[in-house]
Every structure is written in structure tokens, then in C-alpha cells.
Design a protein that fits this description.
Elements lengths: L16 E10 L2 E9 L11 H16 L8 E6 L5 E7 L8 H13 L20 H16 L12
Helix pairs in contact: 1-2, 1-3, 2-3
Length: 159
């Protein structure tokens, strides 16, 4: 069986960054999948499910309500390995194109206080598994260490 695209990336050389994972078409519409890699794979601890779940709720809410990207957002959710997130947008993009959007989103998450959208039993299947303080911390860390002064090596997968 052929490996899927995400399994062909050398995770031993991958560092936290913002990468184009793949580009596809849904009919005539291009779809770009982004790899929002927040932790260093196989080097540092993965994120716990509570903070991943919180980032998912906040990020998805932010993106789907965004003035420009709301209608272009198909999916935002965690990687199974818990080292980051996938974002699927309609359109043909490069990583550089969405750096401002990601800075905006992660600033929103880093500074968010109050009730987490969708964090009640009626709205979510695991509403008790949330950790806002760690989500704030991880979003700030990603902003400071990756997005704010992003370099070429954090925008394109290692060759």
C-alpha cells in the first residue's frame, strides 16, 4: 500500500513551523492543507488532549468567524500524534500567505479568557477535557518561537 503524503515527511528533521502539507482539488476548487506543527516531533513531549481540545475549539471558532477566511475554512483540527494541527482552506496557497492569519489566530488563543466556545455537554462529546491556561501558554509559545519571526526553514518541509 502506498504511503499517504504526511507519512513521507522526514519527522526526524521536522521542526515546529507552518507548512503546506498537500494540495488537492474538490471538483474545480483547489484545497490547500496546512501542517501547523507546534512541537518538535519525537524530541519534545506532545501536547495533552485537554489543551489540544481547547485549541481546536478556539481555533475553529476563530477561523469560521473570520471576515476573510470564514467561508474558505473547511477544517481545523488536531493531528493524531498531538504535535500540531491541520488546516484545510479552499484556494491555492503557500505557507507565507497565511502567516498573518496564523498570527491573528494564535494571538486570539493566547489572549483568550472566559468560557470556551462549545464547552458544554450539549455542544461537545468530551466537554470536560479542556485546559485553557495550557492552550494560552502553547499558543503564546508558538507565536514567540515560530510565527513572530518565522524563517524559511519553518515555512517549507525539510528536503
Amino acid at each position: 500500500m502506498k504511503k499517504i503524503t504526511s507519512f513521507t515527511i522526514d519527522h526526524l528533521r521536522l521542526i515546529p513551523g507552518l507548512y503546506v502539507s498537500r494540495k488537492d482539488f474538490a471538483g474545480d476548487c483547489p484545497v490547500t492543507t496546512f501542517d501547523i506543527r507546534m512541537t518538535n516531533p519525537n524530541e519534545e513531549p506532545v501536547m495533552n488532549t485537554a489543551e489540544v481540545h481547547t485549541i481546536e475549539h478556539l481555533g475553529a471558532t476563530f477561523l469560521r468567524n473570520h471576515e476573510v477566511y470564514g467561508d474558505r475554512t473547511l477544517y481545523f483540527g488536531p493531528m493524531g500524534c498531538r504535535t500540531g494541527f491541520y488546516l484545510l482552506l479552499t484556494g491555492d496557497y503557500e505557507s507565507e500567505d497565511i502567516v498573518p492569519l496564523m498570527k491573528e489566530m494564535f494571538t486570539f488563543i493566547a489572549e483568550y479568557t472566559g468560557d470556551i466556545p462549545g464547552s458544554c455537554a450539549k455542544d461537545c462529546g468530551n466537554y470536560l477535557d479542556m485546559n485553557l491556561r495550557m492552550a494560552n501558554y502553547l499558543a503564546r509559545k508558538y507565536l514567540d518561537e515560530v510565527l513572530n519571526d518565522i524563517t524559511e526553514e519553518r515555512l517549507h518541509y525539510p528536503a
